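User: I'm curious what two different proteins look like when written out as structure tokens. Can you demonstrate?

Assistant: Sure. I'll show them one after the other, since each token string lines up with its own sequence. Here's the first protein:
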Amino acid sequence: MTETPHTQPMPPEPTRYLEPPDNAFKPYKPRSPEIRAAADALRGMRQDLFHDAFAYRPLPRMSGDAPFVRRFSGRWREYATWTPHALITAAGLFTMFIASHSDYRGAGVNLFLSLLALGPVLLTMVRPIGAFWLSMAATPVAAVVGSDWGDEWPWLPGSFVCHLAVLTIVAIRTRPRTAAWMWVLTGVYGAGAELFPRSYNPFGSNSMQMLFFSAMFLLAVCLRHIRREARQEVTAQLTVTAHERSRRTLLEERTTIARELHDVVAHHMSVVAIQAEAAPYRVENPPPELEKAFVTIRENAVAALTELRRVLGVVRAEDYEAPDAPQPTLADLDALLTNVRETGLSVDKTLTGAVRELPQGVELSAYRIVQEALSNTLRHAPGARAKVEVSYVLGGLGLRIVNGPPPEPSLVKPSPGAGHGITGMRERVTMLNGEMTAVATDEGGYEVTVFLPVAHAGEGDA
């Protein structure tokens, strides 16, 4: 008889729940404004006096354009730029003199106290915040080493002058907030020195004198900072105001010129269009060629008038509404060439590459460049043959407009408006980061070559 063992299933382990911490469900209490202000103040003190306290910050020389420096000439002007360094050195020597001519315990002690007074002052030229901490550390050392029963506590005469000089120089080199923190820490040190037994210091303390004189010096320095910042702000505002005034004056002048140009040119172009429309009716049985020529003249005048209003109308009046007619593109190039051929210019067009839609700015600039190049051909080489090549390449659009020499150079008349067409084309090409060359050919004609870059659709996403 075979006995089959039965396995008892293990009971499931009880689910363990993690107990939340004690402060998990405590409501968040925002800090009071006083606590935030105190935290910000302590953060400012740490940034001003503790962060990179001994960083190397050399004192720069005075600018050669400073009013004081401009009073000198030649080599003396070069020396005058070192005036701040000379003044700090003189202040250090003065503190050294005060510290060494006191009734202390001997020549060795006087020399030691003199160096303690000189070091922080000279250090302000390279490490200003470090000089303040060195002065704070040197003050108790000097008080312990050189103090006598007849001396005031806790600043000896040399330490007193040294600390005042350091506070003033560092305040000049930094900002008012740093000066305030230095004054507070000086007061904290003076208050701590008052805790010593009176028997050790029976003649009183000079902490109040230090706080009073340092407050006066630091207040003067802070007022100087505030005045300088206010002057810089006023100068910046005056510069901005002058720039805006000149810009407004320029816009007003451009608006006035645009209005006058619009009125004058629009009047004459309107007269040309009206006379071209009425001219065929003044001639009995005019030939078809003459009627077609007058129709072309009228259409060109109307088109030029429309373009003029589109360009100048925006600045003619604030409430002017620009016409809704679309800007010309390369699709209108055939109409332009047909119009030019009717004026007598023989022009051929060559198209290479796969025609595709280009950005509106490229299309308009290309059309205007071809238009201006053909206008220059009509003006400077009447009767010459011209050729327009449009190339759709991988990286953009290429244009080449070349004309031959005029068959009758005597027919070329001086043009008072010459010289701005090439400049305008270059400006359009430069605006699109393209390249352009405009040179005379060996045959006596002229050639304009332009390349306008066009980014692929995928380049902008890369």
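Here's a second, unrelated protein for contrast:
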Amino acid sequence: MRFRHPDGSTVHLAYCTNVHPAETLDGVLAQLRDHCEPVRRRLGRDRLGIGLWLAKDAAHALVTDPSALRKLRTELDRRGLEVVTLNGFPYEGFGAEEVKYRVYKPDWADPERLDHTTALARVLAGLLPDDVTDGTISTLPLAWRTVYDEERAETARTALGTLGERLDAIEELTGRSIRVGLEPEPGCVVETTRDAIAPLTAIGHDRIGICVDTCHLATSFEDPHIAFDDLTEARVPVVKSQLSAALHAEHPHLPEVREALAAFAEPRFLHQTRTPTAAGLRATDDLDEALAGHALPDASPWRAHFHVPLHAAPAAPLASTLPVLKSALTRLVGGPAPLTRHLEVETYTWQALPPELRPRSRTQLAEGIAAELTLARDLLTDLGLKELP
């Protein structure tokens, strides 16, 4: 979906396909048929943007076989789909029964991460629509915090510098500009937008910036206005933003609130949980840890890294952080010029929701994704953007 900003530029809205597990190119092609095109049809649009997640094997097939890349591009066109952004965070196995800490491997100190991201950039340059010259990729925020020392930090900085040089070369060869954004996430070396400033300034390459995920922003209790003021002052580019909402519990000391939260503690994904205290944020790596005994203080609200559907907040006594998303979106595209032109709805946890909230068919999933995109579209038009055909 495309929108005209009042300044005349085009803002792209997509939804991320990491909600549909696929590890191979054949799996990606099946996604387009079984999920992405049905969402487009449900929205009544001739064209729909998707943020492709390409696992290691799919990316390798596309970057080593020009005919495979042409086939994917042809299939996108045939199904009324377009790609201007990729999710390069998960490397492989995102559809496994248990993902948890595995999603942070390989990190930016491992050569596989540089090779994979380079492959994604080359693929994206070949997938961009004919009238679009700029593409974006979101990536791991350096590493999970517990395996990161100064030696690995220096290796990661060098790798990202090399990536910047390769992105320069891609534009020189193809005329397509690809940028990559570190995506701050709770528990990682770069946990907040402020954490991103120092490493990105040290790298010092204008093709390497930040991807702001509004669920992660909210989980860390960041104020969007302060966050974007800091990024603007530091001249850190917002490469893209993922529109998502976290799980919010206003009164976590109440038994009924804990019972409601327990329904979201599931074995597949990590649900980092945070609460503000006078001494700063207190944290657990997962929601079940927070609920066990006194691992987390409960005098203040809790927020958990659980991407809840944008249009359907959980039932009371829980809530979502959709207000944080709205506030962030106001800063991202509500000003005289957009801070970013690539927006991506990223609710990958549909099948991790409590059983009674999960979609029971492809049709129900398509309806839910379409409802999220409709909400995002309405927020954009309320900010003065005009939806384009």
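A detail about the second structure: The mean pLDDT is 97.
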